[in-house]
Design a protein that fits this description.
Elements (H helix, E strand, L loop, with lengths): L1 H24 L3 H30 L2 H27 L12 E4 L1 H4 L9 E7 L5 H16 L4 E7 H10 L1 H8 L2 E5 L1 H16 L3 H19 L17 H15 L6 H4 L5 H25 L8 H11 L9 H29 L10 H6 L12 E4 L2 E4 L4 H4 L3 H11 L3 E2 L1 H9 L6 H4 L2 H11 L5 H11 L1 H5 L1 H4 L15 H16 L8 H7 L5 H10 L10 H16 L3 H12 L3 H8 L5 H11 L2 H16 L8 H19 L7 H15 L5 H9 L3 H6 L2 H16 L5 E7 L4 E9 L4 H11 L4 E8 L4 E9 L5 H19 L5 H8 L14 E5 L7 E8 L4 H11 L2 E11 L2 E10 L8 H20 L11
Family: Belongs to the GlnD family.
InterPro entries: ACT-like_dom_sf (IPR045865), ACT_dom (IPR002912), HD/PDEase_dom (IPR003607), HD_domain (IPR006674), NT_sf (IPR043519), PII_UdlTrfase/GS_AdlTrfase (IPR013546), Polymerase_NTP_transf_dom (IPR002934), UTase/UR (IPR010043)
EC number: 2.7.7.59, 3.1.4.-
Length: 927
């Protein structure tokens, strides 16, 4: 009561202030308009400040949204009053000089965020008159002067009905029309005719159109509700989904308030409470986002997440940071919105207002089965969907909570929403006895390792809450996000997607993208272990200890429970504990260094483990998110697989090094028939053994011809470009006189030209030239476009090597002013390891990524008088991990402790100096 009285007093105060202003200005309408804008701007600013203060204190997003809508009502009323009383009064109005001001869209719902649009309908009786045109124009100009974003339409009642019939967007906006000011009879006429002429008999068409519109919107904003930078308004599980849900219910059930959904039989009382809780939380987040940014920001980006978590009041707890706890709440809310949407859709289907879904259209198309009777009398078919025979199905046998999903997978059936709804309400039946039940675990393992659609069914289990209840360790990571730029999804979504990827490979659907994985998956002996390992590999995320080691412990506990034998369980535990090893070695180690392969082979030990680890690694990377997997990573993994396979099978790895060099030279000689023996012998003598062992034959051929052409043209500094569409990289080969800062100049030129380096092969000839191949991630699909880009980068490298440009200036100019990675902190680390290579010291440098980082690091290494033999560049979101194989100027390893300490200080200073410099975003296409 006190709050309502306060708000009423605010309206009275504004009305009194406007009346006083009108009295003071008299006939000076220009001054009246100018001072009215000043008065209303101050009123809006004060109202927003009060709304923000109350939002923080009361933690009620709905109250804030309604308060802001009420504030806008006050402003519209003041503007309308001045326009009709003083600017364009109608002393003796005709029947045509009538006007109703109606709020539509979000404003019509009576809920607004600080940056929301003001959607208005100026409603006329039949046509626009000079008076109505003047009033509307005057109101709009004042609202625009207030810097408000106004969406508006001026229509007669007939116009509105005609537009609503033809356009679903107009129809939806009118569905939420709310009378504000003017002629109430016009508004009432519109409502009556809208119900009679538009809504009646058109429910199915409206439902289908809005659901199709939702699919398109969600696809644009991100098809998963578990994207780690969600769109609060338009993303899956966001406010627009709740709006759509209510639009459908309002159109079909003719309800006007959400609470009427219970009376209509669509929601239970508990579900209505859940609806209100979701709506309040999402409005709270959205209002905080608008207040924090000062604009209509709808994407909950990493930059905002920490600030919003703090504004709402989250703190670190249970191994999760404040921002991770906040985002977990957000994703659980998004999941609840999805559950509510499913309930409404089920109700619409029952009224024949919506087409029925299938479990998985791809599976339905490719794997149709003849369906006999279901294996349990507790379930039945309802319009080709599996449902419970009665409400006691789960109470009689709690194992049915797992069997429901097993039957859905076995028969390729969609699950009736009523069955999912009952399962969610029956979760407490899943106790220790059910979890340890042999039959329940057999059914679950069948689902997990199914050849149909395991990802789809597991996701249904997860959305119903059954999966997290049946496997509590999985329940701990449901809706858990990792606050970094690398992972695109929550942990549970990532795990389910990884199972989906292996199922696609298993079904032969990804032959072109993953040729080696497709080739070997049919040869593995431990298929069940692979699927279980993928389901569990990140299950210990969010715990204080290393998630790989903790995950292995969980695997050893769950394996026997699921029905795996001792050997399978141990294989799963090994895979979980080592699930990052192959990716790390492939992306950050010199695969041409025998020591790398020897050490990796010692970890893997058997061909079967090598195959399983490759498959797990491919699926893990692919499931991280769109664009994370690429052909370059695939090439690195294939190289590591084949080299390790040779060691494990006693193949070529045991061959004499000199013999391997000789064979490589013979192969190149045969590929260059136009060279005479003397020319080839001289050329072969220019390369050290490392070149012959590391570079593949096609690249050796191209480089031999490149060097010959360059020298014939008397060019000691030259660059050439080639594209590789499958691996997703562009190769830049540079020939130049060798010197310690050569790689720094090349990386700086790449950064300045927008080239994102992913790897580098570095060789020196016996006559003092450097032959360096830089691999840059591809930017264009078409080869001709990519070649033009590569040639621009090559030209920049040549100019830099010739001293025509200052690299430091170009790199500095490339750094943007604002830091995209500002929300993140990555502690810089420098590791110097002499055990990873027989010939080189390995420098592993990790820290917060940024444009020009690789240039800064190579510059520092050059100043330290170190020779870089190879460089391996990897980025995991905001974290850069760059590895350099180096020696001192005499070709020896760095073993002196003082020298190592100096190297660490110099490389750590690269990160410290950046912390003191103006902020800049990570990589932005170049390092």
């Amino acid at each position: 009561m006190a709050r309502a009285a306060t708000e009423t007093a605010a309206i009275r105060d504004l009305a009194a202030a406007v009346a006083a202003l009108e009295a003071r200005k008299g006939s000076d309408t220009a001054a009246l308009r100018r001072d009215l804008v000043t008065l209303l701007r101050a009123h809006l600013e004060a109202g927003h400040a009060e709304a923000e203060t109350r939002l923080i204190a009361e933690r009620d997003g709905l109250a804030c949204a309604r308060r802001l809508s009420q504030l806008m009502d006050e402003v519209i009323a003041a503007v309308h009053g001045v326009a009709t009383r003083r600017l364009y009064p109608a002393d003796n109005p005709s029947t045509g000089e009538r006007l109703a001001v109606v709020a539509v869209g979000g404003y019509g719902r009576g809920k607004m965020a600080p940056g929301s649009d003001v959607d208005l309908l100026f409603l006329l009786p039949y046509k626009q008159t000079a008076w109505s045109e003047s009033v509307v124009e005057a109101m709009l100009y004042i609202l625009w002067d207030l810097k408000l974003k106004v969406g508006h339409a001026t229509r007669s009642v007939d116009d509105c009905i005609r537009e609503a019939r033809a356009d679903m967007t107009v129809r939806t906006a009118m569905l939420e029309a709310r009378f504000l000011l003017g002629e109430r009879a016009l508004y009432d006429d519109l409502v009556a005719r809208f119900e009679h002429d538009v809504v009646r008999g058109s429910a199915q068409a409206f439902v289908e159109a809005k659901l199709a519109e939702r699919d398109a919107r969600v696809s644009r904003a991100g098809a998963s509700r578990y994207l780690v930078e969600p769109n609060v308004k338009d993303g899956k599980g966001g406010l627009r989904d709740l709006n759509t849900l209510f639009w459908l219910a309002r159109y079909v059930y003719r309800v006007h308030e959400p609470k009427e959904l219970v009376r209509a039989g669509l929601f239970t009382g508990e579900e209505m409470v859940l609806f209100n809780r979701c709506e309040e939380f999402l409005w709270r987040v959205r209002c905080h986002m608008h207040f924090a940014t000062g604009r209509a920001e709808e994407r909950l980006s990493f930059d905002l997440q920490r600030a919003i978590a703090e504004r709402i009041g989250y703190a670190a707890h249970g191994g999760l940071s404040a921002v991770e706890r906040f985002m977990k709440r957000y994703f659980l809310t998004a999941k609840d919105v999805g559950d509510l949407t499913a309930i409404v859709c089920a109700g619409l289907e029952a009224r024949h207002a919506k087409h029925r879904p299938t479990l998985d259209r791809f599976v339905q198309r490719l794997r149709r089965r003849r369906r006999g009777p279901l294996e349990s009398h507790d379930f039945a078919l309802d319009n080709n969907r599996i449902t419970v025979a009665d409400d006691g199905a789960f109470t009689r046998d709690p194992v049915n909570l797992v069997r429901l999903f097993w039957l859905a997978d076995r028969h390729n059936l969609a699950i009736h929403p009523d069955a999912s709804r009952l399962a969610t309400r029956s979760l407490k039946l899943i106790d220790r006895g059910v979890r340890e039940n042999r039959e329940a675990n057999r059914l679950f393992l069948d689902i997990l390792t199914s050849r149909n659609a395991p990802e789809v069914v597991l996701r249904r289990m997860n959305e119903a809450g059954v999966l997290g209840r049946f496997v509590p360790e999985f329940g701990r990571v449901v809706a858990m996000m990792q606050f970094n730029m690398y992972h695109h999804y929550t942990v549970d979504e990532h795990l389910l997607r990884s199972v989906g990827v292996v199922a696609e490979i298993d079904a032969g659907r990804l032959v072109a993208e993953h040729p080696l994985a497709n080739e070997i998956i049919g040869t593995i002996q431990n298929r069940r272990a692979l699927y279980v390992a993928l389901f569990l590999h990140d299950i210990a995320k969010g715990r204080p200890d290393d998630h790989s080691i903790a995950g292995a412990r969980i695997a050893r506990k769950l394996g026997p429970r699921f029905g795996l034998d001792e050997a399978e369980t141990e294989t799963v535990a090994w895979l979980v504990e080592n699930h990052l090893v192959m990716s790390t070695v492939a992306q950050s180690r010199d695969l041409a260094d025998p020591r790398t392969i020897e050490d990796f082979a010692k970890v893997v030990q058997t061909i079967e483990r090598l195959k399983l680890l490759l498959l797990l690694t491919v699926c893990d990377i692919k499931a991280v998110g769109p664009g994370v997997w690429n052909g370059w990573k695939g090439e690195l993994l294939r190289t590591l697989f084949y080299e390790t396979e040779l060691v494990l099978t006693g193949g070529q790895s045991g061959e004499n090094r000199a013999e391997r060099v000789r064979r490589a030279q013979v192969a190149l000689r045969e590929a260059l028939p136009d060279w005479d023996d003397a020319s080839f012998a001289a050329y072969a003598a220019r390369h050290y053994p490392a070149y012959w062992l590391k570079v593949d034959l096609p690249r050796k051929i191209e480089q031999a011809r490149f060097i010959r052409v360059s020298e014939a043209a008397d060019r000691t500094t030259a660059a050439t470009v080639a594209t590789d569409g499958f691996r997703g990289v562009t190769e830049l080969t540079v020939l130049a006189p060798d010197h310690p800062r050569l790689l720094a100049i090349i990386t700086g030129a790449c950064a300045a030209a927008g080239g994102n380096i992913v790897d580098a092969q570095i060789f020196t000839t016996t006559d003092g030239l450097a032959l360096d191949t830089i691999f840059v991630s591809r930017a264009f699909d078409r080869d001709e476009d990519e070649l033009r880009r590569g040639e621009r980068i090559a030209l920049a490298i040549e100019r830099a090597l010739k001293g025509e440009v200052r690299i430091a200036d170009l790199v500095a100019a490339r750094r943007p002013a604002k830091d995209r990675a500002k929300p993140f902190h990555v502690a810089p680390e420098v590791i110097i390891d002499n055990s990873l290579s027989h010939r080189h010291s390995v420098l592993e440098v990790s820290g917060l990524d940024r444009p020009g980082l690789l240039y800064d690091l190579t510059t520092a290494i050059g100043k330290l008088n170190l020779n870089i033999a190879s460089a391996h560049i990897a980025t995991f979101g905001e974290k850069a991990v760059d590895v350099f194989y180096v020696t001192d100027l005499t070709g020896a390893k760095i073993t002196n402790a003082n020298r190592q300490a100096a190297i660490r200080r110099a490389l750590l200073d690269v990160f410290r100096s950046e912390e003191e410099a103006p902020a800049s975003p990570p990589r932005a296409g170049a390092r």
